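Supplementary Data S3. Sequence and structure tokens for construct A.
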Amino acid sequence: MSDLQKGFYPHGDNTFLANFSESEREVLINLSEQIIELLAERIDHHSNDPLAAMVGITSHDTPPEDEVLLRLLPNAYSDQVDASEFRRYTESTLRQKKQAHAMAMRTSLKSATDGIVEIDRNGANDWLGAINDIRLALGVRLNVEENTPEELQLLKSGDPMHGVYAVYSWLGWLQESLLEAVMNGRQ
């Protein structure tokens, strides 16, 4: 089995490798950059409190209007008052954490030598978070909550969502390979 068919695999005690073609690297870099941009902070015009700004408390207490952002930054509570208060205290930090995962993924892809990405356990956690966020975003675009996998597999090759579904599926396989590599590396 070639490295391309393996996805990620353990290499030593705390290192994981994957070999990506140039086009695969470009797709992953592009998707990670889109997530980074999407998660850019909302401008907080209402907070003049320097302490609140320093610790990441914002005046934003409503969920994002964009459906992808809403999936990435969902309400933590069904009660709107509790959800709003929780969002004020956590959204900024959550955005930063998700952006950091995507940035780490992008950095390791950009610094790959001959398409070989090498990450440690922390890098694996970053990649797992970034892949998950990218798949959540693609899942919203594919409307996976309404469409069954069988329906998505039947998309015609001319349908723009056909390619999106192919990437979504590939990322699921890649994520699984990384999870298996991490779990096998612990034995």
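Construct B, processed identically:
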Amino acid sequence: MHHRSHGSGELRVEELAECGPDCVFERGVMVFHPENIALGRNVYVGHQTILKGYYNARMEIGDQTWIGQQCFFHSAGGLRIGARVGVGPGVRILTSTHAEAGRDVPVLGAPLRFAPVVVEDDADLGVGAIVLPGVTIGRGAIIGAGAVVASDVPAYTVAAGVPARVQRERP
């Protein structure tokens, strides 16, 4: 029997497309397709986080962004996280999904659809939030813990719930 793998995910900082000074990678961080992952200055990546790059799409993480433990970022559709973003533990960001191809096609065999995710500067994603493909989270927005973000969130608003809805504007 023949087995294949996407690789070990072993972190080799020198293989990243870019890695600014003073970045911290805690124990257990896994990185796939590092050649398409760029980190700015002073980025913190928490324990057991997975940065799942993709062979033909880019993941960019801006200066002074903090990423909690056990996060999962998948950048098949492209992922851009701005500067000074807080990402709570257990956050999931997805940039692809399977299309519905009819009952005769298993979901797993259906075509993939790719859509970029953008998290603008100064935003904050609460513990366990899930961000779905095609979403833009505006500058300074706050996403509540456990929220499932399926549509864009305007700048300087607070969104929470499943699905996430804007609750109010920030002062």
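The CA atoms of residues 99 and 111 lie 6 Å apart. The chain has a mean pLDDT of 96.
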